[in-house]
Structures are given as C-alpha cells and as structure tokens.
Amino acid sequence: MSFQIDFGGEKSPIVGIDLGTTNSLVAVMELTGPRILSGIVPSVVSVKESGEVIVGAEAREMLLTHPERTVYSVKRLMGRGVDDIQDELKLFPFQIAEGSESTIKLKLGEKTFTPPEVSAHILRKLKLDAEAELGVQISQAVITVPAYFNDAQRQATKDAGRIAGLEVLRLVNEPTAAALAYGLDKRKEGIVAVYDFGGGTFDISILRLHDGIFEVLATNGDTHLGGDDIDNLLLKIALEDIQSEWGIDVSKKSDAVQLLRRAVIDAKEKLSFVPSAAIDLAYGGKTYQREITRELFDKLATPVIDQTLGPCRDCIKDAGVAVDQIDEVVMVGGSTRIPLVRSAVEVLFRKRPHTELNPDEVVALGAAVQAGILSGDVEDKLLLDVTPLSLGIETMGGLISKLIHRNSTIPASATEQFTTAVDGQRNVLIHVVQGERELVKDCRSLARFDLKDIAPMPAGFARIEVRFLIDANGILSVTARDTRSGKEQSVEIKPSYGLTDDQVEAMILESFDKAQEDFNERQVREARVEADTILAATDKARQNDAYFDLTDQERSAIERGVNELLVVYHGDDHLLIRSKIDQLNEATQTLAENMMNTAVRGALKGTNVNG
Amino acid sequence: MLYYEAFGLEPALSLDPDDLKKRFYERSRQWHPDRFSRASAVEQEKALEMTSTLNDAFRTLRDPIARAEYFLKEKGIELSKEAPPELLEEVFELNMALEELRDGDESTRPQLIEARNRFIAMRDSIDQTLAATTDLDQVRALLNRRRYIKNLIRDVENVLPN
Fold first, then answer.
1. Closest by alpha carbon to A172, among A38, A321, A396, A367?
2. Per-residue pLDDT, A171
3. Total structural domains within chain A
4. What domain range is A278 assigned to?
5. Are residues A102 and A176 in the same domain?
6. What's the angle, vertex CA A12, arms to CA A9 and CA A14, rounded to 5?
7. ipTM, 2 decimals?
8. In a domain, A213, yes or no
9. Is residue A402 a contact partner of residue A392, using CB atoms and an 8 Å limit?
10. What is residue A604's predicted lDDT score, i.e. its pLDDT?
11. Of B25, B51, B52, Cβ closest to residue A210
12. Is A410 part of the contact surface with chain B (CB cutoff 8 Å)?
C-alpha cells in the first residue's frame, strides 16, 4: 500500500501532469517524494467507428489499423493557426477539417476536434488513471509546458485542462520542473543548466539555486524541434528505398507509413544502445529491411542536434554566466538517450551531464513537486521562472515597442499610456505581439485589445493607462484605467489564435456531460467484471457435489439470483448490478461454506493417505 | 518611490547589490503566488500584485543605469533627447562612414570598428563615473550622454556584423 499524505480532510491531492508530444504521465507528491501514477500514456487519440474516443496505447495501435481516425503529436498544433503549420502538414498526417481558418480543427472519422480538445482527452485519461490509483476524485493539476511556449500555446494548454475538468493551478516549464525533480537543491548554491530535448520540442534553461529557490536566469529553445524530426529523416530514406526496391510509392498509404514510422522509431531507439539496427517492414505481402549503422544515424541526426546548440549558446549569454560557472547539466526528454546528443552537450558545457533519472519521467515528477509547493506540503522550495519571449505593442509603421523583455522574472508587468488621435474617438485598438524581432510581421501576434467606450473628447485628451501583466503561468492579461476619471476602462480581447472564452465554456459543458457519462460507464464496466466473476464461480460450483447436497429451497434461491443478475447485467445501472451481485453472494453462501468444508476434508484425507 | 518601497528601502541612487538580492529572495518567499494557490481570490490578487511589482522593481534597481533613470524620472527630471554638443562632429563623421559602408564602400570598415571600440570605452567610463556621482544634474548629464552613445553603438553594430 502506498502511504498517502493527509491533505487536510476534504482536500484532494493536486496532481502533476507532463503533457508530452509523444507520451504523457501523471504523478503525485507523497511523503517519500514524487511518484509516477499508473504508467506512460502515449499521447495518441483515436475515435472508433462507434464514436467512442480512445487514448493511449490502444489508440497507438489504431494508428496502424485506422490512421485516418487517429492523431498523434497534437502538441505541435497547440495554440497555432493553420498558416503556421504548413511545414508540419508536410511531415505529419494531420487531417485539417474545413473551417479551420480561425481555429485549427482536426478531422477524426466523422467528428472534428480542436487541438485543446484532443489534449483534453489525454488529460482526462490521466485524470481517470490517477483517480483509479488514488481512490479519490482529482480536480486540480499542475501541467507542464515547454519553457519556450508562447502565450497562445500556454493558453491552449490551460484550455485543454479546463475542458478535461481540471482546474489548472499552474503551468510550469518543463526544464524547470525537471530541475525540481532532480533534487539539485541539495547543493545550496550553484548554477545549473537543463537541456530538455523531447519528441517535438527543445528547451534550454539556466538556473541559479539559492537555498531552495530555483531562479531561472534565462531560457531559450525551439517549440518545433525534437526526436520526431530525426524520425522523419529516417522515414524519408526508408520511403525512397522502398520506392526503388518495390517500385511503388507507399508514402500516400497512411497505414504503411505508420508501420514504417514505428519500425524507424524502433531502430532509432535500439541505436542508442547498439552500433547497428535494422528498419523492418512487412506490408502487402512484401518485406523491406535496411540496416542503419550508428555512423549513418549520427550523420543524419547531426543537423537536428546542431540546431539545439545555438539556443544553448544564446541562453548562456542571456543568463550572464560563463560556461565554466555552470556547475551541473541535467538531461531531460527521450531524445537525450541518443549518444550523439549526450556528447554534443558534454562538449558544449564541458562537463558530463546528469542522466541518472529516467528522462521520460523526470518532468512529471517535477510537476508533482510543484503541486506539493502549491498545496503547501513542500515548504522549502520555490520556483522563480521567466517569460521566454519579449512582449511588445505595435507602433506606427509596423514597428514594435517592447514593454516586457524576454527572461524577465514572472509575474512581470508594464504600464503604458494611450490617448486618442482624432476628435471624439471612442475606441483605441492595441495590437500585442510576442517575439524578439523589430517588425510586427516577424513576431507572433498575440491579441488585439480594444479599449472601448472612451468618453468623446478632443484628440489627445484621453488618458488611458494600460497595464500588461504576465502571470506566474506566463500568460498575459490586460487591464486599462481612465486616469482622468479613475474609472476602469473596458477592454475587449480578440485573441489572434486559439479559442475564445465562450468556445471553451461550451466545450467544458459538453465535456462535463461526457465526464459524467465516462464515470458511469466505468462504474458499469467494473460492476460487470465483478458479475462475470461471481457468475463463473457459481457456474463451476453447480458441478460440485456440494451443490446437490443443498435443499431445493437453497438451490432455487441460487437459480433466481443468477437469473436476476443476468437480467440487469446489460443495463446501465451499476448500483442495480451490484445489488444483484450481493443477492447472489448471499444465496451462494451455504454452498460456498459446504464446498470449503469438503475441500478441507479432502485435503485432510489426502494427508492421511500420504502420511 | 514604488520600486524602493517594494524592498522596504529609502530611495537612493546607490545601493548595496547583495542586500537588494537578499531582500528580493526574502520577499519572493513571502509573496510568490505559489504560496497562495489555495487562498481566497482577494489574497491571490494581492500576491500577484506584490510579486509583479517586486520583480519589476528588482529588474530596475539591480541595474545601475535603469535605477538612475528611474530615480530621475520619479524626481520629475527628464532626460533630453538632444545630442551632447561635444559629440556632434564625431557623430557627423560616423554617419557618413556608416552611409558609405551601407553603399558597399568597405574602406570605412576599420574606421567604424575603431569608432565602436571608442564608444564602448566611453560608455564604460561613464558607468564608472556614474557609480560615484550623487549630484542629480551631473547624473542627468551623464545619462543623456550615455543614452546617446548607446544608440551610436547600436547603429554601428547593426551595420557591422560582430
């Protein structure tokens, strides 16, 4: 039995969730430290023909049989617009539904889903797994995001949590979470770099440790760079091979591509431990095999790995530290198992990186530690994180005026004065962008804020003070005040990407019904499993001599019990099923006792014979 | 002055960086929103307000230049946007050289590298003088000059890669 923390009566634990590109995990903080609950859940979602949504390992199998009803690596789409994902569409079999101009919608069989809804299905599965293991309802979570995620990507992740019925108490950056999990604070003072190379994202963060405070000095990364990219390079070679060997182009056959992708990943993973591995494919009565040596693999992977080194150098520079001041380097994410990644990091940082903890689990463990900080169970640690990207507003001529610079500790704020340009002007539109470039067109549009209902007055007279605030989750909010009247100025937000609040609300309502349904379904399924067990046992007992020793009355009570249970078995009332199980249990009590006695007698007799 | 208040400090041009850092960590531990995740909405709002101000203040006060600019602004002293007269001739020549390099005349490159290094040396020397200056008029003049030189360095570096 696991030892549960007393969260003070009615309070249920806050779970920590790593919502990864390839795999997701849930963990919880216990007295002995953070612990992973249940297992790794592949971040794959599939919709069966019946309309049932399945998640995880089962859905990953559907990738092979029903690729058109299945989606993976959806994290790559979070908080993005259809224009930004053109490169992704060439490499990933995302099926974009019509009407995706403002918000991406994915087609899975007959249904369409936004990326936050797909992620919500993964989160709901993790929530149910955690509830099953802990035996309590879970309603609050810490979810991790890549440190380099922008505002829209963070907001989309938070939306996913809400749709899944989770109150997201904090979004925590993955590398920072990993630093928490590593227990690096045993070292009272020091500088630590966390290199986090996952399936689809890359992050580098440099932290200063000070007496339990984890202060992020700088972060950098690429939210579209990961092991997936190496897979795609291998896949391309294999597809070309097959084209020349078989004379057919299988790249349009999505089931073949998925089989091949699986074979490529197998080979890639093996190559971390052996000098050579084969890509094997059997498809349509044909077979393909290609031996990949570590040497060839390294040659292919080098450009991808090199792309991580630039952000590392920039991050060291931004942190204002010299390489030899960095005391420790921590490796996170499945792609850091690749020997070439480890040696590249070792060369850059001039020290051997830490690889003691499972790179797939360390982020979820750290999320659980952060959950412990929020619940008050962990008192000696505190994370001070930064915003990865500068925040600015559009000024004249498409230029940007930066208000909050990247690597500012969050929460962070900036205040700016606005006025009107024409007599009687009633509103002012503020365009907020995120990024490091000088021109609006090179940055990421976040949202347009409309200051509405300004009292009519001559041009330049209005005095509106706008406050931009980035909270501890790295998410922006904007408030405005009319400094002449001191009144709150109304602001209408038009997010450039992602869902409006109303859309999220609608999805929550829908999923709330779903959650109830899920819950019921699970109860019914569990009751049926129990019914199966007792029905099978009763059936077997009826062959036993002891059954015939029963009175007619006792036998008919058992018959009735079986029949009544069978009648309710296919209904959807789990309470009724359970009451009939109890009834049958009672009716078979004498039979069970008699059988036990006979068995004991038999066993004793056996002893006598042998003795 | 709000930023000094956030640290419980009296407004002053110079301060002890180690003491500032210590106060920053203490106050972060006390007020960070992580400490209030199960508190009431009002308390959460207050924690957010306190820490965002603390962080903004720390960013400004730990940097001697940003601190001096903040201090002057709060005192109602504005920086001028005009070029310091003693630099005018140099700036004129610099702009010509920049123009020529942009037009592809490589011969001005050594001159620009030399100018950049000289400006960087000027900036560093201003920073040193500033650290020892308490007279507000002098601080203002130094900051004006520094801001102007900083822009010159930026302009040269935009044209000279590395």
1. A367
2. 97
3. 4
4. 227-300
5. yes
6. 140
7. 0.85
8. no
9. yes
10. 57
11. B25
12. yes
